[in-house]
C-alpha cells in the first residue's frame, strides 16, 4: 500500500520557522542501542488493555506491511521532505488487544526509559506507522533500528526511536521532552514547541 500523495506546493509543506534539510540529522537524548540480533527484542503492548501482548520482531514482520511517503519536522527547526517509511500500521497493532474505552492517550516507551505521549486518535491516524525502514533501507541504529514510531503530523520528537512499549492510558502523562518544557501535543503547523505555546 502506498499513501502520501500531496497537491501542496513545497512552500505549503513547510510549517512556520522550519528550514528544509537534505541530510538526515540524528537527534536524541541518551545512548544508541546496537543490536547484534533480535532474539531477545520484544514490543510490549500494555496498560489500559484487556491483556498485555508481547510481540517478537518476527510477529511484527508477519503483520501486513505498509509504506507511506511524508515530511518530518523537528522542533529544532529542520524539516526533511519525502521520506518513505515502511512498517506496520498502528491500526494493525490495536487489533491485537481490546483497549479500555476510557483510555484516551498513548505513552510510547523506548530504550533507556525514554517516553513520549500522544492522544490515541493521533496514534491511530492513517499515516501513523511503526517503521523498520526508511527510503528502502532498514533503519540505521542511530535512526531507531529495529523499530521506531513515525507520526509525520506532529513534531518529530513524538516519533520514538528504539520503540519497546506501547502503553494505553486514561491520563495524558508527559514524556521525556514534555517534562522538559516541550508541548504536550506538538503540532508543527501551530508552532506548538514549548509548553507555553
Ligand atoms: N528514543 C528516543 N526517540 C527519539 C528521541 C529520543 O531522544 N529518544 N528524540 C526525538 C527527536 S527530538 C527527534 S527530532 C527525532 C530524531 O530522529 P532522527 O535522529 O532519526 O532524525 O527522534 C525522536 N525520537
Ligand atoms: Mo527533535
UniProtKB/TrEMBL annotation:
List residues of the Oxidoreductase molybdopterin-binding domain: 29-177
Q: Which InterPro entries would you find in this protein's record?
A: OxRdtase_Mopterin-bd_dom (IPR000572), OxRdtase_Mopterin-bd_sf (IPR036374)
- Name of the molecule in the record: Sulfite oxidase-like oxidoreductase
Q: Which organism is it from?
A: Cytobacillus spartinae
Lineage, uppermost ranks: Bacteria, Bacillati, Bacillota, Bacilli, Bacillales
Amino acid at each position: 500500500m502506498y499513501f502520501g500523495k500531496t497537491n501542496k506546493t513545497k512552500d505549503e509543506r513547510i510549517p512556520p520557522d522550519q528550514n528544509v534539510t537534505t541530510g538526515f540529522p540524528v537527534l536524541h537524548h541518551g545512548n544508541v542501542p546496537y543490536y547484534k540480533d533480535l532474539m531477545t527484542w520484544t514490543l510490549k503492548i500494555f496498560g489500559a488493555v484487556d491483556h498485555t501482548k508481547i510481540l517478537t520482531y518476527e510477529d511484527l514482520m508477519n503483520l501486513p506491511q505498509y509504506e507511506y511517503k511524508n515530511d518530518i519536522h523537528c522542533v529544532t527547526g529542520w524539516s526533511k521532505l519525502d521520506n518513505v517509511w515502511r512498517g506496520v500500521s498502528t491500526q494493525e497493532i490495536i487489533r491485537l488487544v481490546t483497549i479500555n474505552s476510557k483510555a484516551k492517550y498513548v505513552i510510547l516507551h523506548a530504550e533507556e526509559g525514554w517516553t513520549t505521549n500522544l492522544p490515541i486518535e493521533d496514534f491511530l491516524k492513517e499515516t501513523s506507522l511503526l517503521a523498520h525502514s526508511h527510503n528502502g533501507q532498514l533503519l540505521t541504529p542511530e535512526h531507531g533500528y529495529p523499530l521506531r514510531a513515525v507520526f509525520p503530523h506532529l513534531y518529530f520528537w513524538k516519533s520514538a526511536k528504539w520503540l519497546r512499549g506501547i502503553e494505553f492510558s486514561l491520563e495524558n502523562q508527559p514524556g521525556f521532552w514534555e517534562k522538559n518544557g516541550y508541548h504536550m501535543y506538538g503540532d508543527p503547523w501551530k508552532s506548538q514547541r514549548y509548553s507555553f505555546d
